[in-house]
Amino acid sequence: MKRYAGARRADAASISAFEADDLTEVDLTAPQAQTESSETYDEENDDDDESDEAADATQINASAPDLHVHEAPSAQARRSLDLPDLEKLAISRGRTATQRRDVAREIVGHLKPMLDPRIEPQNVSREKAAMLSCFRPTNLPPKSRKEDKRHLKEYERLLRKSLKHEDLSHRKQGRFIIQRAKHLTNAADIWEEEILPALETGRSDSRTKALSWKGLPTRCRGRVWAVCIGNALGLSDDTFSTALANARETLRELREKRADGQDDSGELITLASFEAIDACIDETYADLGLFQGEGPLFAPLRDVLHAYRFYRADVEFNKALCPLAALLLLNVGAPEAFVMIANLLNRPLMLALYTLDRPVVDRRLAALSTRCSLHLPELHKHLHVDLGLGPRDYLDAPLRSLFAAQMPIEVVSRVWDVYLFEGDAFLIRMCLALLQVLETALYGNEQEVLDIMAGKDREHIWKRRLFEDDFMERVKRF
């Protein structure tokens, strides 16, 4: 127990040393220090290596045959790597026990004592540098060499176990991806041959709903979404062409008015709204590069948004429309996306959000507050009592885009697969699951909560916490 506690302290000390911003790295050039810090620890690790090699062989044989296995770098290449490169290497997949041991030893070999200038304002002498330990503050008495070497061994062992855990997780993920690909391939035939021909009359079929919870195949997702959204407004491709032509003519006239010095603030459609659309497009799924500049979907997205702006001139443009329309365009063409977005935003909750009909929004989200108090009482108290927020306050931004602006594409696509079948009632369950996933990040002040829910820290919070199958299982439990 004492040995394990010492290793935990050593591990914590080394991690804090890496993360401290105000520490200065000391290069130990003294021969004694170099000899001690570069020792390898074969005696206690040989048995572990043999058992790890056997376990690796079993894991590799059990895993899918087409998973990629990375080769270990040569000794010369490893010596040329700096610490950040080694940390990147440490999370790669498919290493053998020998490769994990080499990586762990290389990381341990790069450990150096860190000096806090508040404790050691002067340069450290070579004699003192030779006695410093990576795992103890410099203002405390140094460890004995025996204890220091023992902690280095423990730290190396912890690193190897961590690397092994990473490898097993990657292999498990690889097997899951292969299994899911096989499922979607088989499901695509079922959707296209059996379900789609009778989908308009068979949407309530239990088998169809069960398959929608497992995710729609990409090749037929757009067609299924179109049937589920419907066309209650009776729109067509001609409607899109006419609206787009009128939008272009309106845009030309507004530009002429501005050039003549005329004010368009009294108009139902202003030039500023078209400019806001163009600015919003540049930020839409920038990591994909499909909707910006010369991207293949830049013009279709702009056309859909301009046409809808003219079609619903009474609805003020909101930047949440951009990711919503972009997600549709990833699955259907521009005319179909226009028809789908017009009908989708004509649903009761979405229409109330975009026309700022707050009583209707509050009435439809009232159940969320009640169920949140039952399932997430502490978070409910913080949001609704301490901060005085209502569901409309912190869900307005994500609901306007139907979470396309916040969630990763694969997750929001799965959410839409079910939402378009089950309607607005599904959103209550989905929002509860979302609050549960984000709960630990939502105990801040009002502005922090609103920023998180709006997706301003999407990369670090939403993407790191939301995984499609795990999230959909959470939704089912509500």
Structural write-up:
- With 478 residues, this protein is mainly α.
- The chain is 66% helix and 1% strand.
- It contains 25 helices and two strands.
- It has a two-stranded antiparallel ribbon.
- The two termini are 42 Å apart.
- Mean pLDDT is 76; it is low at 1-47 and 53-93.
Defining key terms:
2 strands, mainly alpha, two-stranded antiparallel ribbon, 478 residues, single chain
SS class: mainly alpha
Strand proportion, as a percent range, falls in under 5%
Radius of gyration based on Cα positions: 29 Å
Distance between the termini: 42 Å
What form results from the Cα inertia axes? globular
Helix content: 55-70%
H-E order: HEHHHHHEHHHHHHHHHHHHHHHHHHH
Regarding quaternary structure, what we see is single chain
Low-confidence stretches: 1-47, 53-93
Main sheet: which strands, in order across? 1-2
E-strand count: 2
Return the average pLDDT rounded to an integer: 76
The helix count comes to 25
Biggest beta sheet attributes: 2 strands, antiparallel
